[in-house]
Amino acid sequence: MQQTDHLPTGQPFYQQVANEEELFVQAWKHGLPALIKGPTGCGKTRFVQYMAHKLNLPLYTVACHDDLSATDLVGRHLIGAEGTWWQDGPLTRAVREGGICYLDEVVEARQDTTVVLHPLADDRRELFIERTGETLQAPDNFMLVVSYNPGYQNLLKGMKPSTRQRFVAMRFDYPQPEQEARIVATEAGIDDRLAGQLVRLGNAIRRLENHDLEEVASTRLLIFAARMIKAGVPVRQACLACLAEPLSDDLQTVRALMDVVDVHF
Ligand code: ADP
Question: Where is the ATPase dynein-related AAA domain (predicted)?
């Protein structure tokens, strides 16, 4: 489990794409949880980091996986030299401190894990800690944020309709070409012309989606390729290593992707 427990430091760079910032602020002000859906590497996590910084809230990020238990989120008893002591999990800490708990790829978590979220996400805003018998009332500053890729299976099926209707849902996608080029240029420190070329390449690969690819070139992959090129790796090699190979194991598909690369460079 990846867990970041910090008060955000430097302002993360985030290029606003639509009215997501305003929606998020309103959800937070009204004590509503937020749900961000969108493909891998399109900026969901960066957005949450940016908002945590903007609202000056501690951020607890949990990368969900199928082994994640409710205990991992809520906390556990540990045994030390002086006996047994209780350690809060990231969800409990966020509730106690009044911060954001961000569950990334929440669909990956088991359903019994997400059950602890129900009373927190609905009107009660409560966290029940079974092991200690404690019930915590979430302070106004607390916000639950979950994200998932709608291309995969759907968490919302496992939630009570009354709970899931409380989420303010935002759909993210890869940004428009000019915005994405700005992101790639800024994040990788490359010039606008090269960023524009990479984004055009990325969009061409995205149009191949229905061919053999399970996933398409994300903004993240374009940034990786850009960083390699900036570091002096030849463009073709950078695109092979950062775009074609990560997207497919099938040699023919990799070759087809490299044909698209060759058209753009
Ligand atoms: P995910 O949607 O998988 O959570 P991330 O938020 O980790 O994706 O985005 C991947 C990378 O793409 C980020 O680290 C950041 O460099 C970049 N990125 C994507 N969208 C934006 C954006 N709107 N503004 C700034 N950076 C972005």
Answer: 35-167
| Mean pLDDT per 10-residue segment, the chain (265 residues) | 53 94 97 93 96 96 89 94 93 97 85 85 93 95 92 61 82 96 97 97 86 84 98 98 95 94 95
Name the residue among 9, 16, 36, 18 with its Cα closest to residue 143: 36
Query: DSSP strand E in 117-261: where?
Result: 126-129, 134-137, 143-148, 168-171
Q: Is 183 in the pocket of ligand 1 (CB under 6 A)?
A: yes
What gap in Å lies between CA 106 and CA 85, rounded to an integer?
28
Smallest CA-to-CA distance from 99 within 148, 163, 56, 54 is with 56
Distance in Å, CA 141 to ligand 1 centroid: 25
What pLDDT sits at residue 153?
61
3-state secondary structure of 232: coil
Residue 265, both tokens: 């460079």
Judge if the beta carbon of residue 105 lies within 6 A of ligand 1: no
In whole angstroms, give the CA distance from residue 223 to residue 203.
14
What is the three-class DSSP state of 136? strand
44 lines ligand 1 (CB under 6 A): yes
What is the ipTM, given to two decimal places? 0.99
Please give the pLDDT value at position 1: 43
What backbone phi and psi angles, to 5 degrees, belong to 60? Answer: -115, 115
